[in-house]
UniProtKB/TrEMBL annotation, chains A, B:
One of its GO terms (molecular function) is magnesium ion binding. Pathway: Amino-acid biosynthesis; L-valine biosynthesis; L-valine from pyruvate: step 1/4; Amino-acid biosynthesis; L-isoleucine biosynthesis; L-isoleucine from 2-oxobutanoate: step 1/4. PANTHER family: ACETOLACTATE SYNTHASE LARGE SUBUNIT ILVX-RELATED, THIAMINE PYROPHOSPHATE ENZYMES. It comes from Mycolicibacterium chubuense. It is an enzyme of class 2 (transferase). Its EC number is 2.2.1.6. This is acetolactate synthase.
């Protein structure tokens, strides 16, 4: 068999059966092999950033990696921003980058570039396979690394893909890789008894303690353990600002997220003498601001690391059994807001979403500033998962919704999207239409990079004066106004524009009632207007 | 003054007065400085790949660099593919990548990544400025490098941008950088007398000689010299496959381009005993194909390098004076094809374009397979410039048209665009609308990645059999069909769909008659159907 067959056989044998792809000439044997090797679903995207974002959304929901197929260095570059997000979210992913044939590279053909250097900036594992006979073992190694929560990049030269001499690795994959599945804790999240003791002692100190959770502690057992700890000891439980996947809503133990704006985060942490990290990193300001601290840990606060992103839930359970034996976590009560009426704004839109969010929804949240009201409005909605912009690289939401919907075809996906970031990877809507995915996209269309209007003031640019006309123009999306309904329709997704709470209510109800993709262009005023 | 002011003052002082931007928080002081430092036009794009492609198109027409403003590593990643094209085209460009504040980097905030590594893959010059006082000198150095035909990347930490202590470099910029402008030959294209003698000897040998031109030899004087040489010696004159800017049409000395498909290129070069390179690199196959040579130089052919990409025109003029003294180059006669009628296909569409191409047009050609008929149909159209996909990274055309139109506001820009690559950087249409640019985009909409259907067969994937259904599906853009008219309208550009030659004729005539952006969605059958 050739290298392409070996790669596909190995992936499928290890349970990786979805590949988000934007192939080119050097990947044609991989594409052809999809028909000879059964069991792999190829999902076409119109841009590599959609493929990588979809694979991220997929893995956050499925818990297992998807494969991504990219074309040479420029294709990897196009997919880089969402690989950055995946890296920050510890998302398992196997990225296959097709390269020129080994013997062709020395000719420096037009598309030649340093793939390894670019891949290294986002990948926890990078390897270039040089012989067909190595493809199976290299693929297994890529999968092993991915399942530890990194982006694995396998660079596959075209001749390695098309040449014979490769083998099937079904056995190795089942043996080596399968053992790792679903048991992350045992691998790199070895329970640290000392860390549990230190954390317990901090929690019992009587001094203000904050427990900051992240990684695998932001769903099910991790949340329950964290809330038990908080309730038994009086510690404040916070979740990292942009969790990869946060379970919340009615019946789920509720945790507040650490605020994005450093000023607000500093308030949440004020007075803490102990900060216990369980799957989260020590909090820092997203950006630096003149004269303001980057490190958000208050003076006099000691940081204790209980666990890293894997094994955090298990460590919290141990800690809960230590400081809150036999207790049960309080869960959020079911509570929907009343449907608002009248003019639509960011808060009214959030309220409508909270009132109507379907059972078991996956909320992909890239609503940025305009989504300021969503968390409160959905706190008592039926239990749902929220995927957030973990790495901060915009253009994540619409692609991630593709992946989430493919990972969980029976769950409705609600994609909350700011207008500015929607425009990065809009073509993901087409893949939603092509695959008939049950995704409802709500564009919070305020006609501006509203976050940057706020940041322009926060960094003190313009010396406190109002920004000048050129600066304002560079943050304005309203001239000409962008018509997301037409764009969605052009990409095969039915769209509808709404300007009142009643219109949004009707549009959302219709979208939730009818399977398949829908887009709602919700016109809302800027938060600054 | 702060670093941002210093940077802007230095750029403007050196004649760089356009900046294509997609800023973020770390660039807010640069944005604010646009209002306090006069003379810089900030052009907002909705995606970084649009900014970098626009800067490439701008510099290819203006001959001087534009600046690009990008946000951190993910922003650079989004712009990488078109920076790759710029690198391959030797386009002068100054890329400013805003980074976290120097003291903030150690906190590994969510958007932290290895900007330097990624920038290195496309830049001929990369530097990180660490003190406000260095900004002016570093900017001058970036400009000097850019003007030698590379992408210069200046990484500017936010605190260097906002802190005082910087100086104006107007004098240095005028002195150091200005001297370089317009005189590339003297700098790195030192005339090599030996190379001229060797080339002359080859041309006089009586053996078949091919003169392959590129770099600065693809317009005006370079073309004239090359054609004089060909006419006097019988040498075949060819132009590199994807020239950065090729001047052609009525009144311009005509050269054929080296074919994209290796088989066709091999035919053009067959029997050559000498290959003289003037501004072009030795020809290689774009991709490797099983059992086919990568190196397109025929057996027994000696390669002589006359000049690299800069100084090629001057070297050719010396060579022409040596082997063809006193001669004048034949120019292409004015000759427009008759307007076709009936069903539209790729050739009929090309014929309509050839019949109507306006005087002085700039043709941005990313029509790929569907543009197969364009070169022949426009050979006798009024003189025009053609910008091509030099680096092979798709998603170039619509952004490059933005830059070309800004560089030459009095010239009509005709953007010929394949459907698949159009979908990479579609949002460039919005910038065309916002800036009211005179760009007519023709989408060759065949509903497929037609080039890949061809390549799938050429690489022998599927062992000569027809591709299977999964492979075909991954190359298909027809399900759902993409409606470029609606998408264009959603982005503020009027659109029109055409299905016959007559409809295309009417739509093109209207678009050329009315200034401002237009899009024509030309439905054509696949070349393989």
């Amino acid at each position: 068999m050739n290298g392409a067959h070996s790669l596909l056989t190995t992936l499928v044998g290890a349970g990786v059966d979805v590949c988000f792809a934007n192939p080119g000439t050097s990947e044609m044997h991989f594409v052809a092999a999809l028909d000879t090797v059964g069991g792999m679903r190829g999902v076409l995207t119109l841009f590599e950033g959609v493929a990588t974002g979809a694979a991220d959304g997929y893995a956050r929901i499925a818990g297992t990696p998807a494969a991504v197929l990219l074309h040479l260095g420029p294709g990897l570059g196009n997919g880089l921003a969402n690989l950055h997000n995946a890296r920050r979210a510890h998302t398992p992913m196997v990225v296959v980058v097709g390269d020129h044939a080994t013997y062709h590279k020395k000719y420096d053909a037009p598309l030649e570039s340093d793939i390894d250097a670019v891949a290294g900036s986002v990948s926890g594992w990078v390897h270039r396979t040089l012989r067909p006979g190595d493809v199976a073992a290299d693929t297994v190694a890529a999968l092993e690394a991915a399942r530890r929560g990194v982006v694995s990049t396998l660079i596959l030269p075209a001749d390695v893909s098309w040449s014979d001499g490769a083998t099937s690795a079904e056995r190795e994959a089942t043996g080596t890789v399968g053992a790792e599945r679903g048991d992350g804790f045992a691998l790199d999240g070895i329970l640290d008894d000392d860390a549990v003791r230190v954390a317990a002692s901090a929690l019992r100190s009587g001094e203000r303690t904050v427990l900051l959770i992240g990684g695998d502690a932001t769903h099910g057992p991790g949340l329950a353990a964290a809330v038990r700890i908080g309730e038994a000891t009086g510690a404040t439980v916070l979740c990292e600002t942009f969790p990869a996947r946060l379970e919340r809503g009615a019946g789920v133990p509720a945790v507040e997220r650490l605020a994005y704006f450093a000023e607000a985060a500093a308030e949440q942490l004020a007075g803490a003498r102990h900060l216990v990290l369980a799957g989260a990193v020590s909090p820092v300001s997203f950006f630096a601001y003149p004269g303001k601290p980057s490190d958000l840990v208050p003076d006099g606060c000691t940081v204790h690391t209980l666990a890293s992103h894997r094994g955090a839930a298990a460590a919290l359970e141990h800690l809960a059994d230590e400081v809150a034996p036999g207790s049960t976590a309080t869960v959020a009560p079911a509570a929907r807001p009343d449907l608002p009426t009248g003019e639509l704004n960011a808060f009214a839109a959030a309220t409508v979403i909270g009132a109507l969010l379907p059972e078991g929804a996956i909320v992909v949240d890239e609503s940025n500033t305009a989504g300021v009201g969503v968390a409160a409005a959905t706190a008592g909605a039926p239990a749902h998962d929220v995927l957030t912009l973990t790495g901060g690289a915009i253009g994540y939401g619409i692609p991630a919704a593709v992946g989430a919907a493919i990972a969980a075809p029976d769950r409705p996906v609600v994609s909350l999207q700011a207008d500015g970031s929607a425009l990065y990877t809009l073509s993901a809507l087409w893949t939603q239409a092509r695959e008939n995915l049950d995704v409802t996209t709500v564009i919070f269309n305020n006609g501006a990079y509203d976050i940057l209007r706020i940041e322009l003031q926060r960094v003190g640019a313009g010396s406190g004066a109002q920004p000048g006309p050129k600066a304002r123009e560079l943050l304005d999306l309203g001239s000409p106004a962008i018509d997301f309904v037409r764009i969605a329709e052009g990409l095969g997704v039915p769209g509808r524009r709404v300007r009142t709470a009643e219109e949004l209510t009707a549009a959302l109800a219709d979208a939730f009632a009818e399977p398949g993709p829908h887009l709602i262009d919700a016109i809302v005023p800027s938060l600054l207007s």
